[in-house]
Amino acid sequence: MSIIVQKFGGTSVADSDRILAAARKAVRAQQNGKQVVMVVSAMGKNTDHLIELASQVNADPPAREMDMLLSTGEQVSVALMAMAIDSMGHKAVSLTGGQIGIRTDSSHTKARIQSISTERLQRLLEDGNIVIAAGFQGIDEDYNITTLGRGGSDTTAVALAAVLQAEACEIYTDVDGVYTTDPRILPEARLVHQVSYDEMLELASLGAGVMHSRSIEFAKKFSVPIHVRNSMTDSTGSIIWQEPESENAAVSGAALTRDEARITLTSLPEQAQVVEEIFDAVSNRKVTVDMIVQNIATDGSVDLSFTVPEAEMSVTCEAIQPILKTYNARIRDIDGQVSKISIVGAGMANQVGVAQQMFSALANDDIPIQLITTSEIKLSVLVPRSKSLDALRLVHSCFGLEQTPQCLTQTDPKRDENVDAVQVVDRLREVGIEGLVIDEIQVDVSQASITINRVPNRAEAIAKLFEQLADGGVFIDMIVEGYEDQSLSDISFTIPKTQLEKAISISNEYREQFSCGEINIIDSIAKLSVSGIGLRSHTGVAVKTFHALAAADIPLVMINTSEIRVNVVVPGEHAEKAKLQIEKEFEENQI
Ligand code: ADP
Ligand code: ASP
Ligand code: MG
């Protein structure tokens, strides 16, 4: 008999009526011949209230006790849900994370799942029960209660669907499904019928709070189809699956990460080791670094800009001070009032002019761009927070995201028969079920890079550059914009070697036109891409990559990170060595 996992978020179990409504959905699924596992969150804002309560007795409560407290929210919900189902004359059993056997590591308040035993669940299902699992929690080796981080019930649900080899995982929430951007921020956002795992991974980590990003990692690893639906209506919702909604659309969603801070360092020596030391120090404080932009050195020294959540700006600055001191480098500029706007789309990789379209839209409203990073399926810009909502609206409309794309992909979201779940689970037992998995390390030596220094960082000037390159038919792959000062920035981009001449001549003309600084050309670069699952939530991945290069004294030319890929560019002559080094570094994470 096929198993279905249904997860109900906080709003969907906020009061007794909603609990009864959720119970009816589960009973209906069982009557339709499924074995049903429910995963429920704490009622309404209960988790927030518990956090508030804790802060009233201790300004800095011990993490272990925090988990003990927060896990009670879900325990209330599972018990009530089991009672609701019982009242309808059906069999139900509620279980805490520990009772199910969800084993995690011991990082309280952000624990990772290591293993899940399925025997008890299977037995209860075979006996005709609807099993109700408490979301967001587990136990460590010493039976301490742990929690998976805010929003973690999604991860419990998808993880259970994965190990039980469920037919699908339904996520019931308070909106109709996944939208092109948060519908509570932009009412014109459109409901997306289907979104790919990679797109959703990027969107979730960029602020689309509808799904916990680690849950999408599970779904991708085990090829579990996710169906996001409204718990209050019978609307069809959205499917998260291997395929994107449309093959033609370059962009399928936009996201706003509001409370970001930018830190710009200057006078760093051009060695991968320095970058490694800096991010090592930051990740030791458990701060997740987001955009990383390193400008190509002009005089042997390097500028490095990166973003962290605003709340972690001071701890980050404190953490890196000793390293800056050692290398005689310094913090040049900090801005705690910035936000990141990103566009995501599986179709972005093979279309020309996407970047230019976004920059032009921002230029029309005079919104300055402080940093730019790209990946194959994502483009992010950093803008002043006061303009962030306008920027999101402009970008959303410039790609016509409110309109349904013409070509909808029709796929049947069934689990992929080609994925041997048993084999994957076995391998994951070794690396830890939520461990880092690297599936590919690629090297591309077909490109060259150009850096134009001191470009006016008005969106209009930046848009012009990419417009002129697009008009010349030049295909741009990576773009990074580093912060120089309030009015200037350095822009680096990569192009196919075959188009280098053309790109140089366009850049020279552009330089005259906008009175930029000098142009640096590297006619042969190697772009190394580390792709896999868990790259950003495992903060150490970028550090490991830098470490691998530093150990062989290979200089870094460009860096770009995303949820699914870490890209680094090194001078072309180091291609092979760099690849070997990185492969060695990630040996144990390969699947
Ligand atoms: P739950 O309690 O059900 O887990 P969440 O509050 O975690 O619900 O997630 C649902 C919320 O996510 C929505 O109310 C919406 O405001 C927000 N959201 C952010 N980005 C998106 C998006 N792209 N699509 C849909 N909802 C989004
Ligand atoms: N109750 C937890 C939270 O509010 C987990 C969840 O809802 O997913 O973060
Ligand atoms: Mg949620």
Strand content: 25-35%
Q: What's the CATH first level of the largest domain?
A: Alpha Beta
**How many individual domains?**
2
SS-derived structural category: alpha+beta
What proportion of the residues is helical, as a percent range? 25-40%
Question: Short description, anyone?
Answer:
The protein is of the alpha+beta class and 591 residues long. Helices cover 35% and strands 28% of the residues. β11 and β12 (238-241) form a beta hairpin.
Structure, explained:
The chain is of the alpha+beta class and 591 residues long. The protein folds into 2 domains: 3-174, Carbamate kinase (3-Layer(aba) Sandwich), CATH 3.40.1160.10; 254-401 and 441-588, VC0802-like (2-Layer Sandwich), CATH 3.30.2130.10. The protein has an 8-stranded mixed beta sheet, sandwiched between helices. A 6-stranded antiparallel beta sheet has the order 14-15-13-16-18-17. It has a 6-stranded antiparallel beta sheet with strand order 20-21-19-22-24-23. Strand 1, helix 1 and strand 2 (35-40) form a beta-alpha-beta unit. Helix 1 crosses helix 3 (63-87) and helix 16 (540-551) crosses helix 17 (575-585). The longest helix is centred in the N-terminal third of the chain and has 25 residues, at 63-87. The model has no long low-confidence stretch (mean pLDDT 90).
